[in-house]
């Protein structure tokens, strides 16, 4: 089994550039993935949450990672 390390670099919260509107807050998180001695820098994904939901415990939709070719399973 592979061990994966994720290093978070930056989060841009609630940006209209990424799709935020009156119904959903969309943010983008930037990170590096390291797996099996390979590093995948400049990876990002969008996070989407319904406006008015509980900030700390409400459901968050996590988009598919971008910036890296990934062919494995993904728990959307």
Could you describe the 3D structure shown?
There is one protein chain. By secondary structure, the chain is an all-beta fold. It is built from no helices and four strands. A four-stranded antiparallel sheet has the order 1-2-3-4, with no helix packed on it. The mean pLDDT is 87.
Percentage of residues assigned to helices: under 10%
State the shape. elongated
Largest sheet: 4 strands, antiparallel
Task: Estimate what percentage of residues fall within beta strands.
Answer: over 45%
Question: Strands across the major sheet, in which order?
Answer: 1-2-3-4
Runs with pLDDT <50, length 5+? none
Order of helices and strands: EEEE
Alpha carbon gyration radius: 14 Å
Question: What is the first-to-last residue Cα distance?
Answer: 21 Å
With helices defined by DSSP (H or I, 4 residues minimum), what is the helix count? 0
Mean pLDDT reading: 87
The counted number of beta strands is: 4
Helix-and-strand structural type: mainly beta
Describe how the helices and strands are arranged.
Blueprint: E1 4-12, E2 24-35, E3 38-50, E4 61-62
Antiparallel strand pairs: 1-2, 2-3, 3-4
Labels describing this entry:
76 residues, mainly beta, 4-stranded antiparallel beta sheet
